[in-house]
Design goal:
single chain, GMP Synthetase, Chain A, domain 3, alpha+beta, 4 helices
Amino acid sequence: MRRVNEAVRQVLSEAVGELKDPRIGFVTVTGVETSPDLRHARVFVSVLGSEDEQRESLAGLEAAHGVLQGRLARELRLKRTPQLAFEYDQTVERGVRMTQLIDELAPKDE
């Protein structure tokens, strides 16, 4: 399943960059979790920008899920093409927040 998830992530990363929807901003596909029966795939994305831009990008990705599924079907010869569901990945934000907290607590060298 790890190889399937990685292959789906790579194809979607390329395909998202080629979408022409103006709602979709700077989006990075950070991970994919495919169900064992290949019917569903949760696609985790990170979006650079404000909360409004994040919502708009997710709406644009949901609108383009048919195009993205078609691309998956063409490039990956899977038994089934999974139904895509996009979710915002907060791990990048959490990492930045943790770094800020550590920097605040670290003693200042003078």
